[in-house]
Automatic annotation (TrEMBL):
<dbReference type="InterPro" id="IPR011009">
    <property type="entry name" value="Kinase-like_dom_sf"/>
</dbReference>
<dbReference type="GO" id="GO:0016020">
    <property type="term" value="C:membrane"/>
</dbReference>
<protein>
    <submittedName>
        <fullName>LRR receptor-like serine/threonine-protein kinase</fullName>
    </submittedName>
</protein>
<dbReference type="InterPro" id="IPR051824">
    <property type="entry name" value="LRR_Rcpt-Like_S/T_Kinase"/>
</dbReference>
Length: 145
C-alpha cells in the first residue's frame, strides 16, 4: 500500500508510483498489440489492477489464482462492502493489519473505492490508468471530493 508520511511523499513512493504507471502502461501496450489477443485492452489491465488492489485491501493475496466461478463470486460479494458514502461496511472485508488508526482507515477506504471503480463490470466505465495513478498519489482526495 502507498500511504502518506508526515513529511509528505518520499522519493521511494514517487519512484514506485512512476514504475507502477510505466509497468501498467507497458502492459496495456503489449496486451493490445500481442498476437492472438484482439480482445485484450487496457480496460482488461485496469480490471486486473483492481483485483490486485482489492487483494491488498482485504489481505486475500492470491485470490486471483482461484477458479473463475469462485473468483467472480468473491469479487461480487466483496465489492458490495465498498461504498463511496460510508466506510463502516468496509471493515467487514479489510485486512485487520490495516486497521491502525482513522487516517490509515480513510486511505484504505480510498484504495478500496479505486479498486471498485477498476472492477466495474462495464469496461467502458472503468477509469483510465492516469486517473488511477492520480488517485493513488492522493487517496484522501478520492473520498473528500
Amino acid at each position: 500500500m502507498f500511504f502518506t508520511t508526515p513529511s509528505g511523499r518520499s522519493k521511494a513512493y514517487k519512484q514506485i508510483n512512476y514504475q507502477l504507471g510505466s509497468f501498467i502502461s507497458e502492459c496495456c501496450f503489449l496486451f493490445s498489440n500481442w498476437p492472438g489477443t484482439r480482445n485484450k485492452t487496457c480496460t482488461d489491465d485496469i480490471y486486473c489492477f483492481g483485483k490486485v488492489l482489492l487483494e491488498l485491501v482485504t489481505g486475500k493475496l492470491g485470490i486471483s489464482a482461484s477458479s473463475d466461478a469462485t473468483l467472480k463470486d468473491w469479487f461480487q460479494r466483496t465489492v458490495l462492502h465498498i461504498s463511496i458514502y460510508d466506510k463502516e461496511p468496509l471493515i467487514n472485508i479489510l485486512d485487520p493489519s490495516l486497521i491502525i488508526d482513522e487516517d490509515l482507515l480513510e486511505e484504505v477506504w480510498a484504495m478500496a473505492i479505486i479498486a471498485k471503480s477498476c472492477l466495474n463490470p462495464n469496461p467502458s466505465r472503468r477509469p483510465i490508468i492516469q486517473y488511477v495513478l492520480k488517485a493513488l498519489e492522493n487517496p484522501l482526495k478520492v473520498i473528500r471530493e
